[in-house]
Queue: 4 jobs
Job 1
Amino acid sequence: MMQHLQGIGMTSLRTRERMVSRLMEQGIRNHKVLDVMRNTPRHIFMDEALASRAYEDTALPIGYGQTISQPYIVAKMTELLLASANPLTKVLEIGTGCGYQTAILAQLVGHVYSVERIAPLQKKAKDRLWDLKLKNVNFLHSDGGWGWPDHAPYDGILVAAAPPEIPEMLLQQMAVGGVMIIPVGMGESQQLQRVTRKDNGYELERLEPVVFVPFLSGRK
């Protein structure tokens, strides 16, 4: 098991070091984010056939029409979330996917509440986080557009799929001072956005163009 987690060859720590160097060249500055990504075995979150490509700067398929985001996007969204003025005691993640982004967040925030609409993907993610002994994560099989009202309000929300506009239910579940990082838009015209909840409303910043899978409703 330990060998599997540590990796060899194209999945080794040396390969992760190269990934981290590239992230720094791409402008990622938060050393906590870089350290966690250096020490988290990304290759265990994908099928063995693709494991040798785990540390390339590209999105890769994880089944069910979903992808694992490229390392830069994972690092960027995490860094943006951590730049929040508030302590991140409770973070809502929409789109567990394979669980890699969940694993990164779980090592940097108090508690992660992760929602996924595709049950088999969530089952795999749970198993992988268990292997990594990350216990500060709760999982819900549900439509991401509903969020997870039971544990609201959240200090941070991170969304891993692109809706045409920001779901109202997610805005309502933000704490005052809380931050949401979310890709918004259709097809090729998506933008990564940061929403901050203020006492009297919401502040919206458009950050950079991105490409995410579409935000779909329902459960599978």
Job 2
Amino acid sequence: MDDLDGQRILVVGATGMVAGPVVRHLAQHNEVWGAARFKSRRARAALEDAGVRTAVLDLAEPDFSPLPAEVDYVINLAVSHAPSFSDALASNAENLGLLMAHYRDARAFLHCSSTGVYQANGAHPMREDDPLGDNHRAMLTTYSISKIAAEVVARLSSRLYGLPTIIARLNVPYGDCVAWPSMHLECILAGQPIQLIPGEPSVYSPIHSDDIVRQIPLLLAAASVPATTVNWAGPDVVSVQDWCAYLGGLVGKEPVIEYTDAALPSVAVDVARMEELIGPARVRWQDGMRRMVAASHPEIDLVPAP
């Protein structure tokens, strides 16, 4: 399944940085419903202008009545960063179960998890069967634990309802939108420090939004009962130090790195299972980040590529 056409698709978390390109692409040939809290009228109007049908949904207190009664596919890209464990577990895990129960007759369910569920292990490329842990506690207190809980709920719900499900552990997403590398770019331009853990380089497997959009139908086609869990990441392992140096070189400014134990640990991943299921991501990190800079700052004359 290279793409989706003529399907009714619900995307939850439609205003998030990952979901934006996804819903716009899918809306070209499908009936797409975008559900979110929609605190910004402008964000909602922008999606509707792109042909997306919008509905207000807050997974902290879910009311599914504004949503369509039936859909072919559900793509859950929503996440709560609530500082309270009870709130984060309710939003990210318990209410995911309610959503899956509501759409138990869908053809497939894609739950976007995070590689932030892995126990930190330096530069070791994380495999899907590696130990899980409280990876993001230094910056996001409830994130890793509630994302692990959500995976458990997704697996259980898949079995209870016979709902084909895929759990995709997303690494660092980026593209022509606000994301972690683009935040680093803004720090470089402003001369502000970028905080990283001391010791070894901070390595990740960033994935461009073009690959995310392209692989959504492939992930849905790989959904199963019991649920399939897979890393979702780009083709390169690269350190934050290296991509910041590259971004700084493009704009002619030196990054300022500040080392602290309060930063996130490395999370690079093994993509062998992903490539077996859906094929590799294609956008190399230098190409994607150069495009990111050009899109976000067209006024800057970038240093020519070597």
Job 3
Amino acid sequence: MLRSQRVEAIEQYVYERKKVSLDQLCEAFNVSKNTIRRDIEEIVARGNIRKVYGGVSVQGNKELLPFNERNITNLEAKRRVAAKAASYVEDGDIVFIDSGTTTRHMIEFIKDKANITVLTNNLDCIVSAVPYHHIKVISLSGILSRTTLSFSGHGAAKLLESYNIGKSFLASTGISIESGVTNSDPEEYEIKRVAIKRSKQTFLLVDNNKIGVIALLTYCDLKQIDYLVTDAPPPKAYYDYMHSYHRQILIADSW
């Protein structure tokens, strides 16, 4: 294995395990500690992985918490972000609403729109839309995850491929300039990627404490997001990055 290939493999190994020791890396890649230390120096310089005592860990990594626990965290901020994103939904739109504790509030703020079609794998969105006969709901197939209260699996992504989507409203576990838009659930990875591919416009809904966080899987680059919707201004580097790709950052209104 070439050194460049080994370095990439080590980085992926650390991402998958969140935290590993030098001894683990030496055994896994059959190299000396001196070699591992040199490889680690290169990986750490990229900014996504940091040194810890006896090994390395993912910088700012965040694991997926149970849905109920995530849902009560920053609840007001999440509702404000959902309201801001929902203001971009227009009568007659075909939208995809992702699973997530921020996107779940979207129905509340689009209930007065006319002739809306909502594609979703979000169980909360499906239930919330039931009283509103003017909102047509198309549910993705798949297995219900009780961790995320969403339907996922290969069948869900394949079904989504069939539709033309005007606007997608996506959630993530974390975002960073270096690692892009990341998520902790491999089952939902492909759904998110398909939604971006099939949409004319993409909105990413995140409360501010997810900025700078890196989760297990990157499902798109930040430059693939048309609108980043959050509750407080992110660091200037994010404005510079988004502006360079003609993308916008939307800050949720205060209540």
Job 4
Amino acid sequence: MNKSGQSVIEFSAEQVTEHSTAKINRVVLKKQSRQLTTDTVIVEQPLQITLVWYDNPEKTQQTNTQVFSITMRTPGNDKQLILGLLMSEGVIESLTDIVEIAANSTETNDNLWEVNLRRGVVPELSSLDRYQMTYSSCGLCGTTSLKSLELKNPPVLSEQKSTLSVNDILLMPNIMRKQQSIFKLTGGSHAAALFHGDKLLDLREDIGRHNAVDKLFGALLESKSLKNNKADTDVLACVVSGRVSFEIVQKTVMAGVALLIAVGAPSDLAITAAKRFNLTLIGFTSEDGFNVYHGEWRLLGQGV
């Protein structure tokens, strides 16, 4: 329970899977030495998401099938990644919009996934540039505009004041870093974490920043329907290990989470979007301080 008596969603971060890292041979060269050793590296594999839906709910047999996205990701938490992506793109609002989501049983690496949408849920694909490869450093290329986010009908973020203390924010990067198990092994992953106060509720890692956020919010959607239990998200903060681009703001807004905290810098479009959708955006967070780009009034003892 939080101070206002609201129930807070409980999570536990998942461990490294056997498919998320790999062992490789390497040569370590120094000024006076050469050594052949092994290294642990992060895995990068393509994930193809195919949507299946009914154009006409009255016709029982007629379905449409369309590849929605191909993205490079680190295997693991794939279902949650897909859920988070579909939610951030406005394709679904809750788990009830999906009949089934599963990997292709004939694909040994589980790289092909199919999502069957409930009758009456028809994805609006004409406004999405989702038919080309999306690389791990790219995110939602071609769709980063305020207008596209407005068309997704994002939830109105809570205007509850004084939900998070400055001291809690200062602690978050170190708390998150200590739980980044894939990063400890490989040095090659980004992380996204969900906090209530200084308590870490959940954490996801991936080679792509946007994928880590999708996995995190997909887990949140899987645990509770954001649409029907929005009050639980009012007191939560999303923390990311790197910089903040527009796509990270979009995903946070679509999840109904009102505080986004980054270890790195935000882009100008990310700041503009935070102001447009009333998101508290914080960057350059360390144990010594941070920058608030919008929404200082959500911090305990700040604002009016």
